[in-house]
UniProtKB/TrEMBL annotation:
Source organism of the structure: Salinicola corii
UniProt name for this protein: HPP family protein
Signal sequence range: none
Record bears the keyword Transmembrane: yes
Domain HPP transmembrane region: 1-61
TM regions (residue ranges): 32-55
KW Transmembrane (keyword) present: yes
Length: 65
C-alpha cells in the first residue's frame, strides 16, 4: 500500500460499528457484517470498473474468469 499510495479499506470501522451500534444493528447479528462487507466490495469494484474503463487505453479487468 505504501508503494502504490493506496488507502486501506475501512475494515476496522465495520467491526467498530458492529460493536458500538444501536440495538437494531445488534439484532442483525452476523448478517450486518456480511452485508456491509459485501456492499463495500461491490461498490469498490463498480467504481474501479467505471473509472478504469473511461480511458481508451485501459481495460479493467483484463479477464473475468
Amino acid at each position: 500500500m505504501q508503494m502504490t499510495h493506496t488507502l486501506h479499506p475501512p475494515g476496522g470501522a465495520t467491526a467498530l460499528i458492529a460493536v458500538i451500534g444501536v440495538a437494531e444493528l445488534h439484532a442483525l447479528g452476523w448478517s450486518y457484517a456480511f452485508l456491509a462487507v459485501a456492499t463495500g466490495c461491490l461498490l469498490m469494484l463498480l467504481i474501479a470498473v467505471l473509472i478504469n474503463n473511461l480511458a481508451r487505453h485501459r481495460r479493467y479487468p483484463l479477464h473475468w474468469w
